[in-house]
Design a protein that fits this description.
The chain is an alpha+beta fold and about 150 residues long. The protein has four helices and seven strands. It comes from Thalassotalea litorea.
């Protein structure tokens, strides 16, 4: 399953990247995130693997992030893997004016087992979650004081 989402953020692209590329900010716009730890590599760089632990309802879900492309301020991609799910997230940041940035996210999911059935029955669930994170990041970013 593949889909693309986009959102405009009322900040210059440099500020968007500054906030997006800081792992300390993750919990501020991903409230379901419990922890984030680097497993191998240099934090934030291509090839680095990290473990993310999320609370989804009453469950905890661990996933591995592998940074595949880091060409900021334009492009950041990563693969996120957990049981029965492989997800490529390709982020592009486009300056559309001096104080406006368009964030485009292309998602590709490959699932197996029960998750594949869920994806076939409720594909909107995946898109809705991605959109929620984008909205939360926009709200977080636009309410930060420059610094």
């Amino acid at each position: 399953m593949k889909y693309t989402l986009e959102i405009d953020i009322a900040l210059p692209v440099e500020r968007v990247i500054e906030l997006f590329d800081n792992p300390h900010n993750l919990k501020k716009w991903q409230p379901d995130l419990i922890s984030f730890e680097t497993l191998s590599g240099v934090p934030g760089e291509e090839g680095t693997e990290s473990r993310l632990l999320y609370r989804m309802g009453s469950k905890e879900i661990a996933m591995t992030e592998t940074i595949t492309v880091k060409q900021l301020p334009e492009h950041f991609s990563g693969v996120y893997e957990t049981d029965n799910v492989w997800n490529l997230v390709d982020n592009t940041f486009i300056p559309i004016s001096e104080n406006q940035t368009r964030w485009v996210v292309k998602n590709e999911f490959k699932c197996s087992g029960f998750v594949k059935l869920m994806m076939m029955l409720m594909p909107g669930m995946f898109k809705k979650q991605s959109n929620r994170y984008m909205e939360q990041f926009k709200e977080f970013a636009e309410t930060q004081v420059s610094g």
